[in-house]
Amino acid sequence: MRQITDAIAGGRLKSGDKLASHRELSEQLVVAPLTVKKAYDELEIRGLLETQRGRGTFVCARLPEPDPAGQLDQIRQAAQKFLSQAYLAGLSFPEVLEVVKEADREITQGASAQQAKEQA
Predict the structure, then answer these.
(1) Per-residue pLDDT tens for 15-40?
(2) Helices (H), the chain
(3) In total, how many domains does the chain have?
(4) How far is it, in rounded angstroms, from Cα 30 to Cα 25?
(5) 72/53 same-domain check
(6) CB of 8 closer than 8 Å to CB of 63
């Protein structure tokens, strides 16, 4: 679920893009088809995916409108939790920023950025 959400947020999956079927994706990830179906269903409830009977599952043509003001408090809370966890792990603020930059690269550039970094 996170990978699909990240791909949509990072622009690697765009409105109208077709996703693999439950069966295809479950075989690729070596998980039960029901697990994939539950993830697709959850993403459909969130308004990110839509299933077209007989055609497949697609990224919604109209993604939900972002509500930054409504989500800002949630983002602040998540940031505080993240920073607390990082500081308890002994990371400095510059190290935390590097972690955030790496996460941004993964979301915006996909797994290929992470693989290139690991190979370097």
Answers:
(1) 999 999 989 999 998 999 999 999 99
(2) 2-9, 22-29, 33-45, 68-88, 93-109, 111-119
(3) 2
(4) 8
(5) no
(6) yes
